[in-house]
Design brief:
Layout: H1 14-21, E1 25-30, E2 35-40, H2 46-54, H3 64-81, H4 85-95, H5 111-120, H6 125-136, H7 152-163, E3 188-193, E4 200-207, H8 218-226, H9 234-241, E5 244-255, E6 258-267, H10 275-292, H11 296-311, H12 318-331, H13 349-356, E7 364-369, E8 379-380, E9 387-392, H14 395-402, E10 437-441, E11 445-451, E12 459-467, H15 475-501, E13 504-511, E14 514-522, H16 526-539, H17 544-560, H18 566-578, H19 585-590, H20 597-608, E15 612-619, H21 623-638, E16 657-658, E17 664-671, E18 677-687, H22 690-714, E19 720-728, E20 731-740, H23 744-764, H24 767-782, H25 788-800, H26 808-816, H27 821-832, E21 841-848, H28 854-860, E22 876-877, H29 881-886, E23 889-890, H30 925-929
Parallel strand pairs: 3-7, 11-15, 17-21, 17-22
Antiparallel strand pairs: 1-2, 3-9, 4-6, 4-7, 5-6, 8-9, 10-11, 12-14, 12-15, 13-14, 16-23, 18-20, 18-21, 19-20
Helix pairs in contact: 1-22, 2-7, 3-5, 8-13, 10-14, 15-16, 15-17, 15-20, 16-21, 22-23, 22-24, 22-26, 22-27, 23-27, 24-26
């Protein structure tokens, strides 16, 4: 409500228009004990931005028309969340707390709670809003963070002059010291029936507020222990028993004074029958920790890790950074708010000992989530319809946990061998290129190398793509690849968790053409992790028992996809229809049941003996690091029985289905789990080129604010409204997506109606406004990465997609300067307008079975009801996706953009028996490994 008009700037969308023209962003979130507003501008318009922003807090309008619109948006958001198990579980935490406690409330709102009920009680909504605002929006309860390129004195003067009008009111900052759960709510087990087929055990322990102890961070000591995945951890023991696929643990701060510890266990089918045994294991782990007492060396290790992470911290993006600072200003002393949560300054073992006293059966709540409780519940949550029962845990069970004996399976982790202790920066030398260069290229491996010359931090980023066309051939192979990757990650997690704790990360992800291994973090000991990962990959043994557990988990995930949000389904089906190689969840499910350990081993052996590898090294890396990686990767190839390189014709890339000029297709699916429907209109705009990329991006920049304002704010179609642009397999598109309680047919006509108004929008666009949009997009594109990780992601994306346009931003900004208003109008007339000669439209409707109310909409909607028929738009339905693909051409593969300067740094011998620097395979191996 605050952003929808102030006395000086009364227009409902004035602020959003200003943000859009200046390439910025704005939003807000509501936590339990604070609301956080944030905004940004990419241009030098900081003072005008703050002038508009500051007025939200001393002269908002709170008009009745705006209030009703925002309540509709809240209701739409609630409808979106009703079938989301996370939202349902969060509400249960509140609903089952102490009655009449402020925590025991509805967490969001609906039209009924915010509009209908108050109106029946003759309550004036705007008056209520003003009363709340007048009470709580007081200068001494507000914290502000501003980041700009101006000097501190200028920033301070600017802030004081604009924000001094906010009044200080007679109200104190509240803290909630009464516990949210008392004896009646503790020592209980809540069973919950979820929407998705999930199995979870959640164990909560009430804690004393830990905020006053932030300099000692005792909670971080516990988080490191409970989050351990090593061989003597809770996670490892539960996996060994076949009861769990993962454990997470963390403290949760709900509000000032309200804190608890949560241990989350992802259960297997067998694990669901051993909930009491799992809880007992948790208490056995607690007993081990109490018996050992706080370990000074483990505290020191935690302190050192947090310190090196902080001192070599990447710069953050400005908006998220200021957004995290303001809540910290409430919790910590101002002088500490930049370092709190990062640096441990005190060692207070007594605080850790005290923390452990809260981990008792009498101070605990258990929540078990499973579809198997379908007929065992007696209560229904009034807001989300969640079915649940609350049971008091029998005294016998509590005693069993209280008297749990020490288990020799549990020990605290060993000392961490991956903590970096050398932070030297590699010399740049002659390699001053700002983009990756080909360091090594052969028929089996291509390696890109770029030494960071900008950020100069002791961190490295390595990405390795393992590619083979056999994965994408059919859904069976896709399933096997994904199962293998999951098995590997699970097994190797007992090792990688140690490295992760030392800020050295590795992860394998499956892809449609193979898998990717990514390493990032401090480079000092990264080569050890690289070597161990590849060695483990080659020697990995498939555990049939774990395979069945992982397979069952994947089957549940695929089945759960039909319950995803309608807007996600709409985008999924659009991609499925237009991508040459894509398998639906239903196709994947058909080819998964009979997969066994032999199938996985045979497939992986075949994959590893017939592949191409493309790697990238960036950051604090040099030729030596690249040489080690090449050596390990070549060894991985050469040790595979019968290895042979891929032939050139096997190096295929996924392509996009090419629709015909003037073609308009519709694909429909029904959602049985959400009350909202969704429409996604995807307009194909041809194969990418530098100019076309900029035309599409600039068109989206121009329409973004008006699309959101008209379809969401004015027409109130739904909470999720997006204008999209991008490329898929090198093919450009513009899209509009709306998730709504209205029927898809109606929403579709409103989208088309909006697109018809864009012609007038473009024609009326002044040259000044057109230039501002160009400037705004230029600034976005030309914005330099703020961190090594951002730069690494850009390079990685170019290599993964085979574009190799590492100077994309510079090239495209240069091209953008030449784009004229006529180019945008021609693009609209040709490819976006309904009468466009080259318009190619795919629409996806996800229709809710719970809300088929088109007749009702005709009578209740204040929008025109004369265009409900899709026939007038000449839309033809797709009845079979396979037949659709068969009847269409494929776009050609987009050309790669490989600049001249990316010739190999040093051309190496391509003989498979010769390694870098002429080291023969099998000789001087130990010597080479210790470089």
């Amino acid at each position: 409500m605050l952003i929808m008009g102030t006395k000086k700037y009364p227009g409902e969308n004035e602020f959003s228009q200003f943000i859009a023209k200046n390439g910025g962003y704005y939003s807000a979130y509501t936590a339990i004990d604070h609301t956080n507003y944030y905004c940004s501008s990419k241009t030098d318009e900081l003072r005008p931005l703050l002038d508009r922003f500051s007025r939200f807090f001393f002269e908002p309008l709170f008009t009745a028309s705006s209030a009703e619109k925002e309540i509709n948006a809240i209701n739409s958001e609630h409808e979106k969340n009703k079938a989301d198990d996370n939202w349902r579980l969060e509400q249960l935490k509140r609903s089952l707390s102490v009655p009449n406690h402020p925590f025991n409330m509805f967490g969001t709102g609906t039209k009924q709670t915010l509009w209908d009920i108050p109106k029946k009680k003759k309550i004036k909504i705007c008056r209520k809003l003003l009363k709340f605002y007048s009470k709580w929006y007081s200068s001494h309860l507000m914290n502000l963070a501003v980041l700009g390129k101006e000097d501190l004195t200028t920033l301070e003067d600017m802030v004081v002059s604009l924000f001094k009008h906010i009044k200080k009111k007679n109200i104190n900052l509240p803290t909630w010291t009464d516990p949210i759960y008392k004896k009646e709510q503790l020592a209980t087990k809540t069973i919950v029936v979820p929407i998705k087929d999930i199995r979870q055990l959640i164990v909560n322990f009430l804690l004393k507020d830990q905020q006053p102890f932030y300099k000692a961070m005792p909670i971080d000591y516990l988080n490191a222990l409970f989050g351990d995945k090593g061989p003597t951890s809770i996670s490892a023991i539960l996996m060994k028993k076949g009861w769990s696929t993962g454990v997470l643990a963390n403290n949760i701060v709900e509000a000032r004074g309200i804190e608890y510890y949560e241990i989350y266990v992802e259960l297997t089918e067998v694990g669901l029958d051993h909930v009491d045994d799992i809880v007992k294991l948790i208490f056995q782990y607690v007993i081990m920790l109490k018996r050992n007492g706080p370990e000074p060396w483990f505290h020191e290790e935690t302190k050192v890790i947090k310190a090196i992470e902080f001192y070599f911290k990447d710069k953050e993006s400005p908006l998220p950074y200021v957004c995290t600072i303001t809540p910290r200003m409430i919790r910590y002393k101002i002088r500490d708010c930049l370092i709190a949560e990062h640096l441990i300054e005190e060692w207070k073992p007594e605080l850790i000992t005290e923390l452990m006293t809260y981990f008792t059966p009498d101070n605990m709540r258990i929540t078990v989530v499973s579809k198997t409780y379908q007929n065992q519940t007696y209560a229904v949550d009034p807001y989300y319809g969640t079915r649940y029962s609350v049971l008091k845990i029998p005294e016998k069970t509590l005693n069993n946990w209280r008297n749990a004996k020490v288990s020799e399976d549990f020990k605290i982790p060993s000392r961490n061998e991956y903590i970096a202790n050398k932070f030297s920066i590699v010399p740049i030398g002659y390699n001053k290129s700002k983009i990756p260069q080909i360091f090594y290229s052969s028929s089996i491996i291509r390696c890109w190398l770029n030494t960071d010359t900008v950020f100069r931090l002791p961190k490295a980023y390595i990405s390795v793509e393992f590619y083979s066309p056999i994965v994408a051939i059919d859904p069976l192979n896709c399933n096997i690849m994904d199962i293998f990757v999951r098995l590997f990650n699970e097994d190797f997690s007992q090792h990688t968790c140690v490295a992760n704790r030392a800020i050295l990360h590795s992860k394998i992800k499956s892809r449609i053409f193979g898998f990717n291994i990514k390493f990032d973090g401090f480079n000092h000991k990264m080569h050890h992790l690289v070597r161990r990962t590849i060695a483990k990959l080659l020697a990995f043994k498939i555990d049939p028992k774990r395979l069945e557990i992982i397979k069952e988990e994947k089957i549940r995930e695929l089945n759960n996809i039909k319950m995803e949000q309608p807007y996600l389904s709409a985008m999924r089906y659009s991609s499925l229809i237009l991508s040459e190689v894509a398998w639906s969840p239903f196709e994947l499910l058909r080819f998964i049941d009979n997969i066994n350990a032999n199938d996985v081993r045979h497939f992986i052996d075949k994959f590893l003996s017939h592949m191409f590898i493309e790697a990238m090294l960036y950051g604090n890396v040099d030729k030596q690091m690249a040489s080690i990686l090449i050596y390990e990767l070549k060894r991985a190839c050469l040790t595979c029985v019968g290895f042979r390189p891929l032939l050139p014709q096997e190096m295929i890339r996924s392509r996009e289905v090419e629709m015909d000029d003037g073609e308009s297709k519709l694909y429909e699916r029904v959602s049985y789990f959400h009350s909202s429907s969704c429409v996604y209109v995807n307009l194909q705009c041809g194969i990418q080129s530098t100019k076309d990329n900029m035309v599409v991006s600039l068109f989206k920049q121009i329409i973004e604010e008006s699309c959101y304002n008209i379809l969401r704010t004015q027409e109130q179609l739904g909470y999720v409204v997006m204008s999209l642009s991008g490329k898929s397999n090198g093919v450009l598109y513009v899209g509009i997506l709306v998730q709504s309680s209205h029927s898809p047919t109606f929403v579709h006509t409103r989208i088309e109606n909006y697109l018809s108004t864009v012609e007038e929008l473009l024609n009326d666009l002044s040259e000044d406004d057109f230039s501002k949009n160009k400037d705004s997009l230029s600034i976005k594109l030309a914005e330099k990465p703020k961190s090594q990780s951002e730069q690494a992601a850009i390079f990685r994306s170019e290599i993964k997609n085979h574009y190799y346009n590492f100077n994309r931003a510079k090239i495209e900004v240069e091209e953008l300067r030449s784009i004229t208003k006529s180019d945008i109008i021609d693009f609209y007339n040709e490819k976006i307008s309904r009468t466009g000669s080259k318009r190619r439209k795919l629409a996806v409707h996800i229709k809710s079975s719970m809300n088929d109310a088109i007749d009702k909409l005709k009578s209740t909607s204040n929008l025109p009801a004369d265009k409900y028929s899709l026939a007038i738009m000449n839309v033809q339905k797709i009845k079979d996706i396979i037949e659709f693909k068969k009847s269409h051409r494929l776009y050609p593969v987009p050309k790669s953009f490989i600049p001249i300067e990316t010739t190999p740094i040093k051309l190496l011998n391509d003989d498979p028996d010769i390694l870098y620097y002429g080291i023969p395979h099998g000789r001087r191996r130990n010597e080479f490994s210790t470089l």
